[in-house]
Amino acid sequence: MTGDAVLPDDVPLVAIRRGGLVESAHRGRLAVCDPEGDVLEAVGDPVAYVYARSAAKPFQALPFVLSGAADAFGLTDREIAVACASHNAEEPHLAAVRSILKKAGLVEGDLQSGAHPPMYGPEAAKLAQSGEDPRPIHGNCSGKHAGMLAVCIHEGYETLSYRDPGHPLQRYILGLIAEVCGLREDEVLVADDNCGVPAFALPLQNFATGLARIATGEELSDELAGAALRIRDVMRAHPFMVAGTGRFDTELMERTNLLVKGGAEAVLAVGNPEGWGMALKISDGSQRAVRPAALAALGGMGIEMDDEGSTMRGLHGEAVGEIQPLI
Known about the structure:
The structure is a single chain. The chain is an alpha+beta fold. It contains 13 helices and eleven strands. The strands form two sheets. Strands 1, 2, 3, 7, 8, 9, 10 and 11 form an eight-stranded antiparallel β-sheet that branches. A three-stranded antiparallel β-sheet has the order 4-6-5. The chain is globular. The two termini are about 35 Å apart.
């Protein structure tokens, strides 16, 4: 065994119960913070680092608004929302990404987001039946990449290396994430995300603090607060554009006034305009644990929602077990 991996202190958050026994369990961590950085609630170690993955997209979209690119190119709120998305590649998502590119004088070939089949099963099946291979626009990060390219065009940055951590745009984003989350730039760890742009890791409680600030605009400069609130508002106004059919992010924003963004490896970011942010990480990366853990945590913060997804059903439709939150 290699002994160099340091695992953060976590706790069981979700149990899988079958026939009265706990069959499996998912461990994780949770932090809820206010805009001042005070920890309101914590489960597990809130100081240990977490890769925000795609849950950082509202932060990565800030230059889209701050630079003036979104307004200069006449982008709609739906188009700004898809720049914050991990989308299903349903037609409205693809149309919005194409529109961003066209308005900025770009083409699909400029996207460097990598290709994968649409996240939404029916769209993936439709593409496969057509005989076409997936293209970068079908990737869930294509909206983010289109937004990044638009900022590059507006600011006069070259576009071929826009994914590089040393590119002016990526340095700009790093600085904003550090500022919003109350850190120095050298306290934010940078690695490669699957789509090729930097992935950022930071203490869970700082991530929650940043979410509280984006959701409220508090503890930010006037200019940055204005951009943050605009990102918040377009995501909440167009939740379908942020994810799509059957997605928890979309559902939760449709049912509440929250800002919600999920990320790979079972990360969830939540911002409440009433004054707090929540960052959730399931340690084993299992997405099935995100929903019950998040709903239980939100219930503890006074946001109660019924959930029909807690019952596990067998191949004949009968109830065979339960997904039970432990917080």
